[in-house]
Design brief:
OB fold (Dihydrolipoamide Acetyltransferase, E2P), mainly beta, 162 residues, 4-stranded antiparallel sheet
Length: 162
């Protein structure tokens, strides 16, 4: 089902130059990966160029419905969540990519404002400021300057005020 939903996101084989380049990599075999979301979870599938969904698939905007064995499975296109999407959230400040912690701008228990830099991560020869998603107190800080971190690791947890 995930494979069929992911395959439905690929461009249809045609005569236009963009669909002809699907999966193109310089000096390597074509590689296609497509992602879909179901129940808040993102699933990825490695596909072959020109692969089409096997079970019947209905596409309506960002919604993808796969029909298999008499059941319907709803998927959506993945959406990145930014500060504007997070609302109050859970207050986790998560590493967006692997890197090294080069600065920490607040200590545990400090009161911080929304958008205030908390941690600076050096990755890809650039510094990335990770900011407070809302005003609150820095409840937990799980890194120190010089630490290496992987993508998706919780670096700090912010507790809302009030």
């Amino acid at each position: 089902m995930v494979r069929a939903a992911a395959a439905s996101r690929l461009p249809a084989a045609g005569n236009d130059p963009w669909s002809a380049l699907a999966g193109f990599r310089v000096g390597a075999a074509p590689s296609l990966e497509a992602a879909v979301q179901h129940g808040g979870q993102t699933y990825r599938a490695a596909l072959q160029p020109g692969e089409r969904p096997a079970p019947p698939v209905l596409i309506d905007g960002d919604d993808i419905v796969v029909f298999e064995a008499g059941e319907a499975w709803a998927f959506t296109e993945p959406h990145a969540q930014g500060l504007e999407d997070s609302g109050a959230g859970d207050g986790k400040v998560i590493s967006p990519m692997p890197g090294r912690i080069v600065a920490i701008h607040a200590a545990e228990g400090d009161t911080v404002a929304k958008g205030q830099p908390l941690i600076t991560l050096e990755a890809m020869k650039m510094e990335h400021n990770l900011v407070a998603p809302f005003a609150g107190k820095l409840g937990r800080l799980s890194v120190k300057v010089g630490d290496q971190t992987a993508e998706g690791v919780t670096l700090a947890v912010l507790v809302p005020e009030g």
